[in-house]
Model the fold of this input.
Amino acid sequence: MTIQQTPSPKLMHLKSLQRTISASNYLVGLGSYDITGPAADVNMMGYANSGQTASGVHIRLRARTFIVAEPQGNRVVFVNLDACMAEQLVTIKVLERLKARYGNSYTEKNVAISGIHTHAGPGGYLQYVVYIVTSLGFVRQSFDALVDGIEQSIMRAHENLHPGSVYVNKGEILDAGVNRSPSAYLNNPAAERAKYKYDVDKEMTLLKFVDDQWVPSTVLLLMELQ
Done:
């Protein structure tokens, strides 16, 4: 006697997901590289306080790159920096290196570089005077660490492009931050304030990168928080 076991709905759903991912028309690439820079005697970026200088390394800083590409078509690059912000000159130099290495695959049209707004990283890498007053001018060591690290991070992501998918979800995080000046916010027109549920943006977006074997590679969390 032959007994045929009916797959559970959960197993059937998992297999369906696996087939969907295997048939994905996207390539996903992830890369990371060190951008720590000078560890001491350099002003930290963000607080505009000349007395706030680095005196050692607590946690090393990194550039993390996410590439999503069509096999023979468009692609987009997002680089997330453990830095106060990205910077125009840094981006220009990175794009110059990418052009020399990959031609027109990566340009200002499809490469986005963003900082997490930490104030615990070295400053002096920006090209405009107002941002480098407290670092007493341009700090080449900070600048080179960023440019080199971003380039290497993108190279690593490019080299490990493989079939995969990106899943997106959104949700509210209610206890992660507050409006620093609720009274000032109330000066906005009532019609403007009526468009929003809260006086700060509490929505978080999560992107989950999965390879073609249904193995999660990493997640990227996006949320406005000061």
User: Anything to note?
Assistant: Strands lie at 26-34, 40-43, 53-55, 62-69, 75-81, 111-115, 162-172, 203-211, 216-222.
